[in-house]
């Protein structure tokens, strides 16, 4: 049977608009990959949709003074429309509030319940708001984080330090409903026995073996994904509550489950299944063909905050149920920051997707300009940063100067020399396009390895090759002396073939420009299977644009932002910069107006910076061997509150290093981060573990630690001088 690809992207909560970081995390990478698979002629279905249950929805509804249903309708419509406008080509964008999802989730729950050994029931003490007469879900409780001191930590997670919490760990808890301190009352909940799945999960994650067969190659999984999973497994899995005391959600389908709903993180991933069911009904397909059987290729696109759910918890649920395929890969991205800081809706720091489309309404190619800027800075293996200056550079230097300029020159010269027709020529195309074919092969390998940023650079390298070749031949100079020169004919013929190839390679990245480009050279928009057809033509030396093929008139594909004659596009970008400058100015003024005690405290803190140590000679420093490494995994050291055991890839070997940073970083946030390591430090034992080196960190005046990392990604093992 032919392989079937089932691609999923994380279901976004329908409690707010999505910003550019969301787009770069789970949706743009998936769209690029799916478009590539379709070009290969693969049978692929891409599902996504709104996650419309959970306390986050009800909290947002309360803030806006409307019902949860109004909230989910509002944001489902907004996000679905925005995705469509940005070319995100889901096969279905579903909703977890649909009846088919409720039934699918309840049936899944009952299947596990009836097995008898997948659930356990517990009476627990849970916070209760006496003023509102209801138990409080985790997100209805706010308090001080016991790990970083953040006074606004939620009952399930501190969004400041990223630590997973339970409500009982919070210091000075208070209800988000009444604002008062809640009381503890007993309530019954169902727990999924995740711990019973530890052994097979560990084998599956580490070796890719499932039920004695090779399921996938773990070497193709990203280091930070494997690291986070192994950290969780080594830390020990525990039963997880899958029900909540709420009135918004999917009712627990048992008589004794009255007043309780399925926990949103139990029902949300099941949304991938229910969305596939709805798609199959709409398209007269069998949904099980895409979820069951050895020919299924299930791939989850998510952000790093969802790794554990998609690599441990959901796979355990699927296997416990039986028959379902498990993911072959989970190419989770890390986080995208905005101009050096985290996105913050409350501060207005960042830009939401729909706002971008509105504020850049008069910007030509606004969709592709954004897609390309995000693509060139995807946080594939480490956190990245979106900057407006980079947006301008990627657009002007790469899309306009490289790609757009090459296409424009080739089309203009073809019109001038040959009346808009591909010149007649018989040459060995395999030989002439050998370097292009090698780049195409590299591009394919990068796409299949989920290295989309590298693939975009190969895309530009193809265009650069064409530009260099055209410039080296300089047919305009030859034309002055000999308009009929065969050198001109060959040059233009080959350049036209390169433009034809670029029109196809562009499709996954800039899908709004690709059809314009193809129309310009007389080709139909990209169809399923076109990439496979291209590879066959290159292999057999068949022209992409044959002799006598007609092309259109030249046009400017990408008007530059930095254009002295037309500043309109630069004005749009500058308005965004001015908005950020205003925010920074307001924050600076707020600090100036802070109470004197606060200002005095700040001065005192600054004066507490440690004094310089004794002077050393260069020879002393030269003895230290500093290397760059990537953290593969991190776990807490038992009975040591300050210590983390790190596994670090130094390029030439892996090292175990014990570091006293546990009070500043959670184990889950470290895998994938690059650090600077003192690599020639003598080994020493800490809590019985041999530590082979030291990672460098900087201590701020308030005592917080920041890891010392290279500003841009460099090869593991690189020497720091």
Q: What's the gist of this structure?
A:
By secondary structure, the protein is α+β, with helices and mostly antiparallel strands. It has 21 helices and 28 strands.
Which stretches are poorly predicted, pLDDT < 50 over at least 5 residues? 595-608
How many whole angstroms does the radius of gyration measure?
28 Å
Give the helix proportion (percent range).
40-55%
Largest sheet, strands/sense/barrel: 6 strands, antiparallel
How many strand segments?
28
Notes on the structure:
- This protein is an alpha+beta fold and 721 residues long.
- It is built from 21 helices and 28 strands.
- Strands 19, 20, 21, 22, 25 and 28 form a six-stranded antiparallel β-sheet that branches. Strands 3-2-1-15-16 form a five-stranded parallel β-sheet, sandwiched between helices. A four-stranded antiparallel β-sheet has the order 5-4-9-12, with no helix packed on it.
- Strand 1, helix 1 and strand 2 form a beta-alpha-beta unit.
- Helix 4 crosses helix 7, helix 6 packs across helix 8 and helix 11 crosses helix 16.
- The radius of gyration is 28 Å and the shape is globular.
- It starts with a strand and ends with a strand.
- The relative contact order is 0.10.
Name the descriptors.
six-stranded antiparallel β-sheet, 21 helices, 721 residues, 42% helix, globular, alpha+beta, 28 strands
Give a topology summary:
Layout: E1 4-9, H1 20-39, E2 43-50, H2 55-64, H3 68-85, E3 92-95, H4 99-115, E4 119-129, E5 134-135, E6 141-144, E7 153-154, E8 171-175, E9 183-192, H5 198-207, E10 209-210, E11 213-214, H6 223-235, E12 240-241, E13 243-244, E14 261-262, H7 264-283, E15 296-301, H8 307-321, E16 327-329, E17 336-338, H9 353-359, H10 366-375, E18 384-386, H11 388-418, H12 429-432, H13 434-448, H14 452-473, H15 475-481, H16 486-505, H17 513-520, H18 530-540, H19 568-592, H20 596-607, H21 618-622, E19 626-636, E20 644-649, E21 654-659, E22 674-678, E23 684-686, E24 689-691, E25 694-695, E26 697-699, E27 705-707, E28 719-720
Parallel strand pairs: 1-2, 1-15, 2-3, 15-16, 17-18
Antiparallel strand pairs: 4-5, 4-9, 6-7, 6-8, 9-12, 10-11, 13-14, 19-20, 19-22, 19-28, 20-21, 22-25, 23-24, 26-27
């Amino acid at each position: 049977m032919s392989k079937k690809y089932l691609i999923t992207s994380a279901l976004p909560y329908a409690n707010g608009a999505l910003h550019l970081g969301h787009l770069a995390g789970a949706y743009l990478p998936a769209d690029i990959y799916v478009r590539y698979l379709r070009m290969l002629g693969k049978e692929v279905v891409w599902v996504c949709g709104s996650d419309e249950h959970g306390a986050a929805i009800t909290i947002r509804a309360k803030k806006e003074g409307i019902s949860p249903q109004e909230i989910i309708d509002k944001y489902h419509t907004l996000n679905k429309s925005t995705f469509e406008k940005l070319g995100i080509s889901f096969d279905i964008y579903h909703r977890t509030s649909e009846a088919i999802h409720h039934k699918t989730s309840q049936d899944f729950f009952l299947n596990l319940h009836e097995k008898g050994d997948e659930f356990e029931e517990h009476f627990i003490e849970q916070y209760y708001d006496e003023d509102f007469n209801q138990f409080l879900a985790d997100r209805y409780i706010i308090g001080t984080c016991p790990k970083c001191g953040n006074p606004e930590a939620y009952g399930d997670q501190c969004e400041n330090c990223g630590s997973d919490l339970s409500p009982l760990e919070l210091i000075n808890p208070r209800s988000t409903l009444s604002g008062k301190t809640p009381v503890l009352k007993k309530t019954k909940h169902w727990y999924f026995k995740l711990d019973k799945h530890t052994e097979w999960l560990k084998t599956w994650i580490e070796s890719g073996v499932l039920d004695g067969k090779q399921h996938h190659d773990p070497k193709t999984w990203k280091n930070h994904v494997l690291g986070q999973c192994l950290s969780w497994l080594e830390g020990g899995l525990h039963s997880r509550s899958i029900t909540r005391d709420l009135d918004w959600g999917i009712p627990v389908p048992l008589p004794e489950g009255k007043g309780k709903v399925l926990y949103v993180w139990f029902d949300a991933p099941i949304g991938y299944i229910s969305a596939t069911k709805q798609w199959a009904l709409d398209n007269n397909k069998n949904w099980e063909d895409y979820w069951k059987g050895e020919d299924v290729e299930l791939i989850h696109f998510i952000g790093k905050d969802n790794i554990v759910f998609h690599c441990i918890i959901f796979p355990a649920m699927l296997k416990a149920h039986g028959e379902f395929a498990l993911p072959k890969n989970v190419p989770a991205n890390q986080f995208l920051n905005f101009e050096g800081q985290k996105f913050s809706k409350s501060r207005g720091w960042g830009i939401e997707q729909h706002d971008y489309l509105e504020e850049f309404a008069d910007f030509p190619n606004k969709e592709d300009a954004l897609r390309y800027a995000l693509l060139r800075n995807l946080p594939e293996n480490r956190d990245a940063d979106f900057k407006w200056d980079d947006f301008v550079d990627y657009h002007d230097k790469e899309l306009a100067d490289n790609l757009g300029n090459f296409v424009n020159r080739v089309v203009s010269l073809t019109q001038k020399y040959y009346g808009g027709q591909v010149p007649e020529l018989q040459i060995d195309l395999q030989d002439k396009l050998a370097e292009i074919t090698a780049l195409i092969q590299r591009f394919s390998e990068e796409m299949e390895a989920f290295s989309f940023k590298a693939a975009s650079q190969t895309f530009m390298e193809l265009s650069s090759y064409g530009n260099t070749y055209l410039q080296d031949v300089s047919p305009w100079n030859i034309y002055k002396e000999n308009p009929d020169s065969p050198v001109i004919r060959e040059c233009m013929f080959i350049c036209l073939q390169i433009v034809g190839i670029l029109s196809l390679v562009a499709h996954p990245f800039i899908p709004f420009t690709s059809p314009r480009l193809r129309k310009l050279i007389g080709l139909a928009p990209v169809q399923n299977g076109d990439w496979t057809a291209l590879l066959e033509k290159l292999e057999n030396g068949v022209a992409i644009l044959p002799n006598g093929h007609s092309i259109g008139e030249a046009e400017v594909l990408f008007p530059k932002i930095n254009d002295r004659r037309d500043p309109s596009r630069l004005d749009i970008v500058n308005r965004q910069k001015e908005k950020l400058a205003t925010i920074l100015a307001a924050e600076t003024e707020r600090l100036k107006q802070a109470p004197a005690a606060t200002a005095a405290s700040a001065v005192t803190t600054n004066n507490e910076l440690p004094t310089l140590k004794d002077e050393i000679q260069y020879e002393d420093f030269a003895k230290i061997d500093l290397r760059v490494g990537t953290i593969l995994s991190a776990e807490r050291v038992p009975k040591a509150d300050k210590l983390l055991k790190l596994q670090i890839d130094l390029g030439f070997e892996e090292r175990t290093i014990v570091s006293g940073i546990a009070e500043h970083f959670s184990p889950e946030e470290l895998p994938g981060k690059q650090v600077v390591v003192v690599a020639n430090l003598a080994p020493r034992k800490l809590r019985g573990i041999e530590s082979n080196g030291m990672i460098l960190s900087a201590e701020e005046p308030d005592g917080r630690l920041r890891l010392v990392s290279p500003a841009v990604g460099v090869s593991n093992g690189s020497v720091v001088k």
